[in-house]
Amino acid sequence: MQPAAPPSAPRRRLLRRLRPVALVVLLGAATLGGDWWWQVGRFQESTDNAYLAGDITPLAARIEGDVAEILVADNQQVTAGQVLIRLEQQDWRARRDSAAASLAAAEATQATILAQRQQQLATIAAVEASIRQAEAERVRATQDAVRYETLAVGGVGARQAAERSLADQRKAEAALAAAQANLTAARAALPVLDAQAAGAESQVIGARAALALAESSLAYTEIRAPFDGVAGNRAAQIGQHVRPGQMLISVARPPEQHWLVANFKETQLARMRPGQPVTVTLDVTGAELRAHIDSLAPATGALFSLLPPENATGNFTRIVQRVPVKIRFDDPAAALLRPGLSAVAEVDTRDDPSAPRGVWAVAAATLGLRP
């Protein structure tokens, strides 16, 4: 093999001339890079352990029945209160009507007892009036008996008249005693009617509660959207027999209400604060979205797991923990945000996040050229 030929003289001269230029370019690039890292780069904390999240509410049946109608399609926009699924209502309407009839009967019984009580009060008033009449009759008969007895003793009046007046006195006293007994009996009936009225009131309250439950059960035959969103994960089928607690469909919040959960390492959290700006890059399109830190979780993600670690037992292995950070979007792109999508989050932890961030902008600010 022949050895490589040495470079020619002109080429060597060109290399000697370009070497200082290359050194200057490299030194300048290193200076720019170092300046950018010192002022910006060391304050940027990023992670690719970030996923979109959002409220997803599974809707389950609260009563037993057969699916009669499915009124929404998969992935359809829905509004709060919109009927999504309807169960058969015939049996539940019959139960509601039966409860309404029971309530009407209880109210009629209560009204009858109250009317009887009013009637009894009128009876008591009539008996009291008869007592006053009997009292007046007894007074008159007593006075007549005394007067006729005086005349008979004096030989002026007949003994027969005296005896008749005495009998009238005794009849008047008996009539008064009978009227007083009737009053006692009439008043004794009031506590019985009051007890019956209380029982009737309890029956009315129970019947009203039963009607309310029946109306609630009838309302539960319609599965409604709890908020504006998108319907999905439909499990119900026409004619399917469902039981209480069985999941039928889910509703997710609108895309503009989603957020990002970024799991940062504990070594990245020292300067993080709510409100700091975040740049989110979505894996699905590569688009960058502006966001900000909403809050930091109160504990590491491991402690919220089904089986949290117990470091006090067994062999201990130190592992860098991650803390979930909730990030809200400043300019959500409704067509792109879906819970579960992956993303990369980069937090600017500088004291002045509005300061220049680009390499040339940082260099210009360092040189005092920033306008």
TrEMBL record:
Domain Multidrug resistance protein MdtA-like barrel-sandwich hybrid: 60-248
Keyword Cytoplasm: no
Parts forming coiled coils: 117-189
Lineage: superkingdom: Bacteria
TM helices/strands, residue ranges: 21-38
Alphabetized UniProt keyword annotations: Coiled coil, Membrane, Transmembrane, Transmembrane helix
Any matching Pfam family: Beta-barrel_AAEA
Keyword Transmembrane: yes
Protein name: HlyD family secretion protein
